[in-house]
Task: structure prediction
Amino acid sequence: MSKARKTAASSGEPDFWRVARDWLHHWLPKVRGSSPKTVEAYRIGLESYVRWLETTEGTQRSHIGFGHFDRARLGRWVEWMRTERGYSDRTIMLRMTTMRVFLDHAGLEHPALTALGNDAAGIRVKPPARKPVDHLGEEHAKALLTAWGTGDAKSRRNRMLLILMYDTAARIGELAALTIADVGMDKPARVTLTGKRGKSRVVPLGERTRTHLAAYLEEFHPGPSMRDGDRPLFHSTRNGAIQPLSVDRIDEILKTAAARARRCLFNRKWAV
Result:
């Protein structure tokens, strides 16, 4: 064991590799409920820093510990990504987000590491430039919202999901987290959306959306016995058990709707 490793062990420093493995394979997917794509993005970000420590800082992989996550090193890493690798502002921001989330977790598990998360949060990176948003025209919005028909239950569920997303500007994760308790049908109708870090906001619904939602509740959550507050608003049934739609499944529903809408508009254009 090297002198550095002996010093870390004798000081009682938590093992970096053990904490990282628990974070990626247990805490993110099972406790936080992150999607596989999110977990993979965090894994790539953490591995990027490890490779930088090896190739640029000359640190042996087996010797890497939390002592290598100080503010000075993280700052050099950010500068290296910008000047040596030419990474975009967005990529650098995502890499630093990985560090902050990981070090915050490490601090919760091992309070002695809390200062590392605080130091990482103090490193400022340039936010990516905001691209102008192209709003959907009336024809495009109609094609998207009607992409899922009404011929079967799943299609009606997916159509309601699109209508609610359009009216509330909800994120995919917010839709996945919706429960019956988050829906208020007495006028003014509203939904409570819970986003990142548990922040909630109440969004009013238009009258047409309220009408669609009332019909949806009657079909998918009929009667008082089906209106349990914890019951997911958008769900599927697996082995007889009700399961909320995952973020990945909702993403697939949106992509399918977008593809169908494009085909519809394309065919309409050439039919003129």
Observations:
- The CA atoms of residues 162 and 254 lie 8 Å apart.
- Residues 1-10 have pLDDT under 50 and may be disordered.
- Residues 247-271 form the longest helix (25 residues).
